[in-house]
Amino acid sequence: MVIYAGLPIVLEQAKVFEKKCIDRAKYGITFKDARNIPAQGGLFGDCGIWVCIFLYRLSHGKRLAVENPVQAALAYREHMANFFFKHRVSSW
Predict the structure, then answer these.
(1) Can you tell me the distance from the alpha carbon of 80 to that of 53, in angstroms, rounded to the nearest whole number?
(2) Contact (Cβ atoms closer than 8 angstroms) between residue 49 and residue 73
(3) Which of 22, 32, 36, 56 could form a disulfide with 17 if both were Cys (CB 3.0 to 4.6 A apart)?
(4) Cα–Cα dist 8/16, whole Å
(5) Model pLDDT, residue 41
């Protein structure tokens, strides 16, 4: 997988190892593949909404799996629309 090899290079170039006092020679990273989670699909081009849903669920300690992915995506879109409408900035 490209990210295994590429991520350390990016971290090195961004001086993350230096700033965080991490020994580059001892650095390692592992990834876990999630199973049984919703994926992009349907008629709505869901990848962006699922990024938002996953970030929300991960940050609130909730399971990633949902019973009805299409309904979850539609409900979260509505939630986001309401949030942005409520907090809109009027420029005139």
Answers:
(1) 10
(2) yes
(3) 22
(4) 9
(5) 64
Could you tell me the residue ranges of all domains in the chain?
1-31, 35-92
pLDDT value at residue 27: 87
pTM of the model: 0.52
Q: What is the dihedral of CA 12, 16, 19, 24, to 10 degrees?
A: -50
pLDDT tens-digit profile of 41-78?
666 667 788 889 989 999 999 988 888 888 888 999 99
Q: What is the pLDDT of residue 20?
A: 92
Q: At what angle do helices 47-59 and 69-86 cross, to 10 degrees?
A: 80
State how far the Cα of 26 lies from the Cα of 70, in Å rounded to an integer: 43
| CA angle at 62 for the pair 56 and 63, rounded to the nearest 5° | 115
